Amino acid sequence: MKLHALLFLASSCLLVNSCSNPALRPVQNQANPAFRSGLNALNTPAAGIEAAVNPERMAAYLATFAGIRPIADQKTLIPERGTVQGRDLTRQFLTQTLTALGYKVERHEYRRDAANIMVTLAADIPTDEYILVGAHMDSVRNAGADDNASGSTAVLEAATVLRELKGRKVNLIFAWFDEEELGLVGSRHLARKLREQGLKISSVHAIDMMGYDGDGDHAVELARPDGVLWDYYQMVNKTHNLNLPMARTNTGRSDHVSFHDEGYDSLCISEEFTNGDSTPHYHRRSDTYETVSQSFLVAGTRLIVAAVGDLSLKVPAPINIQQIPHDRFPSREREFHASYDNLPHE
């Protein structure tokens, strides 16, 4: 109990309301009252950077990814993210939004018509260490609101609010992977590239399907959490007073595996994919915006922002961690399709 209290006080003292560099402040969000309200909440003792997570902004991000809200300044909708055209429109939306936030967008093109999108947020204190937060941006040939507009939205929101955290001692990479549905293709290429570059990545946080909560308990699963990550998320869940039910699983076949295979500590954060409270619309045309639990998506995003925020501040992990092999926990295999046209019959 004393350790948790000290960790909470240490992380709270390092939080502030805005970036020190005015040129990097969000252009569109500064005028948003809800955004300002979220930042003001950082001044209260019980809140952290996760208080800046904005449900209205997240709903708008999700609606664009899922094809019911046009890309800003255009009349274009993203019809789906399983074709070259749909994924290209998704990259346009990400590039436009991230540029408006002050980021320099990097396109990692590993072959024609296939590219990951990523941005880097430099630490306030120079370092060669990185944390990566990512999600696959593609879907099967459907709206893919849960799989995986939900994860893409969570990463975009994390990129929006973590810029406001002062005192970061680790660089942050935010990435959106291409062609996960064809076999982790984009994330494998990116993980291999980062390894070849010798990038020092201390942890990778992949988000996949965090939009369904049938029983309303806001429970999240952490799949294959390497190193200290399981204990760290448990600690943050308590010290930031989030108190979400959490379960550990051994489920693979999402983008965390690509980075684990390259030697990086990683995990995947999701709805209860393994434990049974997962969307019945998985890989179906009915996986639409209306089926996503907005409150669950926001709650999960707050957990991720809090954990990544504390890691970037180098808040110490709990002591006396017992690392338990992944295969002692339940698992569920994910489905892959030979092509984006192969959807189950309704």
Key features?
single chain; 346 residues; alpha/beta; eight-stranded mixed β-sheet; 9 helices; 8 strands; 33% helix; 14% strand; disordered N terminus; disordered C terminus
> Overall mean pLDDT score?
86
Order of helices and strands: HHHHEEEHEHEEHEHEH
Q: Which bin fits the share of residues in helices?
A: 25-40%
Strand content: 5-15%
Alpha carbon gap, first and last residue: 51 Å
Low-confidence stretches: 1-46, 342-346
Q: Helix count, per DSSP?
A: 9
Major sheet description: 8 strands, mixed
Global Rg: 19 Å
Structural class: alpha/beta
Order of strands, widest sheet = 1-2-4-3-5-8-6-7
Question: How would you sum up this structure, described in words?
Answer:
The chain has 346 residues and is an alpha/beta fold. The protein has nine helices and eight strands. α7 links the parallel β6 and β7. α5 packs across α9. It is globular, with a radius of gyration of 19 Å. The N terminus and C terminus are likely disordered.
Structural topology:
Elements: H1 2-13, H2 33-40, H3 55-65, H4 84-100, E1 106-111, E2 114-121, E3 129-136, H5 145-161, E4 171-177, H6 185-196, E5 200-207, E6 220-223, H7 229-239, E7 246-249, H8 255-260, E8 266-270, H9 294-312
Parallel strand pairs: 3-4, 3-5, 5-8, 6-7
Antiparallel strand pairs: 1-2, 2-4, 6-8
Helix pairs in contact: 3-5, 5-9, 7-9
In a few lines, what is going on in this structure?
By secondary structure, this protein is of the alpha/beta class. It has 9 helices and 8 strands.
